[in-house]
Amino acid sequence: MKALTTAAIVLLLAGCATAPASAPTSGGQTFTGEVWTWDQPNNIVTLNQGGKIIRVKTTPEQMRTLRHHEQARITGELAPPADLLTVTPAGPMTPVAKGQPDTLEVKGTVASVDPNGRMAVTSERGPVHVWVASGADQRFKKDAPVSVKMTVQPVEMKPATSGQQPSSAANALAGASPSSEPGDHAVVTGRIIGVNPGGILVVESPTGPVQVLVADGAKYKVGDYVEIHTSVRTAS
Hints:
By secondary structure, the protein is mainly beta.
């Protein structure tokens, strides 16, 4: 029963903004990795190579074969980074809720679990990637049934005022504490870097993107900030 809190303020991650369209050169290189997101109009796919994020410009034919979070072998050429420029006031920032939160709970099985604090879950709605407390590999085993509850709250990042707890990467791990509720709990505040079909949100975090599910993905857009509360517990 652990809780883990983190906040990501201005982490720039390549992979979601568009770039000028041009066809990949013939006889390009071959790249392999996990498909994180893609830019269909410009034929650019973002691959995760064991934590290294790259963008590959390929062909429309190869784009049509992509499946989210599956390993892919892509022929093309490296595309330059396309960071999402976010202008925020200088100084400590704090998230301020706006609109209604979006809560969804799904059941699935553990696809992988990192002892340092990340878990991948396969559910009927799609893959979920969330933070868990340290030592989660001792509490959750691969293929074990779990229930994942996700609450996504849209927020605005505003300058912290006196008495508010500022959000910064510097205090990312300071909020870890036992929880009175069963399961592993985490809070991640970050920028949306991908909105995919089926209500899948990809959100930046200090250890790499997390991925959660929402009822209606159309209400979110790349560049928005959200605060995500997740809990993972063993299911029968």
